[in-house]
Amino acid sequence: MKKLLASFILGLGLLTMGNLSLAQAPAAEPAAATAAAPAADAAAPAAAPAAAAPAAAEAAPAAAAAPVPKIDSGDTAWMLTSTLLVILMTIPGLALFYGGLGRSKNMLSVLMQVFVVFSLISLLWAIYGYSLAFSGEGKFFGGFDKIFLKGVTQETFGALTTIPEYVFFAFQGTFAAITVALIVGSFAERIKFAAVLIFSVLWFTFSYVPMAHIVWGGGLLGADGALDFAGGTVVHINAGIAGLVGAYMVGKRIGFGKEAMTPHSLTLTMVGASLLWVGWFGFNAGSAGAANANAGLAFVNTVLATAAATLSWIAGEALHKGKASMLGAASGAVAGLVAVTPAAGFVGPMGSIVMGLIAGVVCLWGVGGLKRMLNVDDAFDVFGVHGVGGILGAILTGVFASQGLGGTGGLTPDTFAMGAQVWVQVKSVLFTIVWSGVVAFIAYKIADLLVGLRVSEEAEREGLDITSHGETAYNR
């Protein structure tokens, strides 16, 4: 079985690499087709996550001919659907994925944290988050022009000129909510509920919001040319680093490394992973900002990278442990989804397969060898999957966006240079790591000073369902 899986994955990888130079090398000629589509679409893609990014790109085309805002019913319907799909990723997708990974005595606490964080961030996004991310021209923060959604009406347009601003606001709000909810998995089963809420408010305000502006709202990294189609830096690295810092600061669970802390329901985890995969089509393809060819490319890449990562993860498991697991398949799928997020609309299908194959193996190491090296109790491997996968995906985007490897050439196909783009991607990764890490550390410290981070030993042993919420997930 081990040899069969390994041979299959190796063969798939070799075949894919060969196809990069054969099947998609003609991208120089389809550049008329491929560049015409993404170039035409690049005006739109750049405005959801992908297209809101380059403020510089807005300034230049503005001089030529700014598109006349006009509602397109097809684009609006697709973006509403995408918004709904991203909500599905969080509640119930992420909640069930995390809930199944925990022990039964903490099931409701995990569901509660994800559910309430989603609700909290949705309100904060309306009050000031949207304004600070997508108005103003600062390098790090936007402005207060749209605080409390001032000036946003049924007639106004946001960064996208074919959908109502309310739809753009809602779509971006779901990204903010799931990013903060992702962090819950790092410190699960031992943190105070009040501490989660305090941390969420602070980290959202000073890390997620500025990073969204810096990359997608016309800030520093967007102007530098960083490619992040749907959230490799803004969502995954940002959340992964915050989770890692939290795992260190909250400390290890009682009995970690000595007692078995196996998932209580891999069935729920598999259901959650499946909902994440389905919802991710809204996350990635929706980031094209329109119902266009670029959305189709992102959709296909989301399928292929995820499938490839699933297979490479379980192949690695089979070689290392002798068996492929359901947990491994679910984790591999999420790793592939994470890795392709920054690349979805910039790389070709064969490039996405290679990225998925690499992500499955690298993230398997991230939740195993790297986690042991770091000596940290990242309960549900937020850093190992989202942090490591996000870093890998962000950097590889600079490679596989090359037209010579079947990509679209990024935001500027005529001047794209792989080496220069990879360096831009590395800088954006390093910036995100430092920004998120510093903000997370301060936010956890403030929460600790105000209410304390960790529940008592007695409460932890009894389980947070009873001690924090007075309920149990299952009748005993």
Count the strands? 0
Oligomeric state as shown = single chain
| Low-pLDDT segments, ≥5 res | 1-8, 14-19, 21-47, 53-64
Number of helices: 19
CA radius of gyration: 21 Å
Beta-strand share of residues: under 5%
Largest sheet: none
Q: Give the CATH class.
A: Mainly Alpha
What fraction, in percent, of the residue positions are helical? 55-70%
SSE succession: HHHHHHHHHHHHHHHHHHH
Second rung of CATH, namely the architecture: Orthogonal Bundle
Structural class: mainly alpha
Instruction: Tell the overall outline.
Output: globular
Mean pLDDT: 90
Count of the separate structural domains: 1
CATH fold-type name = Ammonium transporter fold
Task: Name the CATH superfamily classification.
Answer: Ammonium transporter AmtB like domains
**What is the rounded distance between the termini?**
39 Å
Explain how this protein is built:
α13 packs across α14. The protein has helices spanning 2-22, 31-43, 49-52, 55-65, 73-101, 107-134, 165-183, 193-216, 220-224, 232-250, 266-285, 293-321, 326-340, 349-366, 369-374, 382-400, 418-451, 457-462, 464-469. By secondary structure, it is an all-alpha fold. Residues 1-8, 14-19, 21-47 and 53-64 have low confidence and may be disordered. Helices cover 68% and strands 0% of the residues. It has one domain (73-469): Ammonium transporter AmtB like domains (Ammonium transporter fold, Orthogonal Bundle). The chain contains 19 helices and no strands. The chain is globular and about 60 Å long.
